[in-house]
Write a structure and sequence with these properties.
heterodimer, A: alpha+beta, Ubiquitin-like (UB roll), 5-stranded mixed sheet, 5 strands, globular, disordered C terminus, B: alpha+beta, Aldehyde Oxidoreductase, domain 3, 5-stranded antiparallel sheet, 4-stranded mixed sheet, 3 helices, 9 strands, MoaE_sf (chain B), Molybdenum cofactor biosynthesis protein MoaE (chain B), Mopterin_biosynth_MoaE (chain B), nucleotide binding (chain A)
């Protein structure tokens, strides 16, 4: 299946593009895509370690399963800091 | 009124946002304006660049506004955030809250800016005389 990854801010500059489409096995999880992306793009490791994830515009945990045409975004830290509890509360 | 949420790469229009939350039933309007300053952590800032995940940011801001309206009885809220390159002194964010009484307008405005800073996917790059970096919390 295909998924779309979009890159913003430090990710966009490190990857050198704003988005890419990946063909991945059905049922793949965010954490597994993260490993694929780290393999494809050397140098993302430091940013990735401090990032969280959004699928289809909502914050999700790393174990979230992806589906056909999902939009995945790695969310690098924001200037104001971002406690995960607050982000989760915001999605409720 | 329906809350106003604007993400724009054009200069923000404070007067229009204040007008949007004005109403005969409103007794107080609180406006927070975030402005680009010329220094940060000992560095001389030349300008800032904001990047935004627009679709998600809009949804997140609407969620924050809904929560503010759940906590305080506020009908009139307008939130605008700029992206792209911003010069020193320009407004990066404006939040206007109009309510019958001032106390809840202050509280709601404070809640919206604090939550926005931590949960809305908008990133800031500081371009300083000594180099540039995406700012992390």
């Amino acid at each position: 299946m295909k998924i779309r990854i979009r890159y913003f801010a430090s990710f966009r500059e490190a990857v050198g593009q704003a988005e890419e489409t990946l063909t991945v096995p059905a049922g793949i999880r965010v954490a597994e895509v993260r490993e694929l992306v780290l393999k494809n793009h050397q140098g993302l490791q430091p940013i990735m370690q401090r990032s969280t994830y959004a699928v289809n515009r909502s914050y999700v945990p790393a174990e979230t399963e992806l589906h056909e045409n999902d939009e995945l975004v790695f969310i690098p830290p924001m200037g104001g800091g971002r406690p995960m509890e607050e982000a989760a509360a915001c999605n409720q | 009124m329906q809350p106003i949420v604007q993400l724009s790469n054009e200069p923000l229009d404070r007067d229009a946002l204040v007008a949007a939350v004005s109403d005969p039933a409103v007794g107080g309007i609180v406006v927070f304006e975030g402005v680009v300053r010329n220094h940060a952590r000992g560095k001389q800032i030349s300008y800032l660049e904001y990047d935004v995940y627009k679709e998600m940011a809009e949804e997140q801001i609407h969620t924050i506004i809904a929560e503010a309206q759940r906590r305080w009885s506020i009908e009139h809220i307008a939130v605008a955030h700029r992206f792209g390159r911003l010069e020193i002194g320009e407004a990066s964010v404006i939040i206007a809250v109009g309510s019958a009484h001032r106390a809840e307008a202050f509280e709601a405005c404070r809640y919206i800016i604090d939550t926005l800073k931590t949960t809305v996917p908008i990133w800031k790059k500081e371009v300083a005389t000594s180099g540039e970096e995406w700012v992390e919390g």
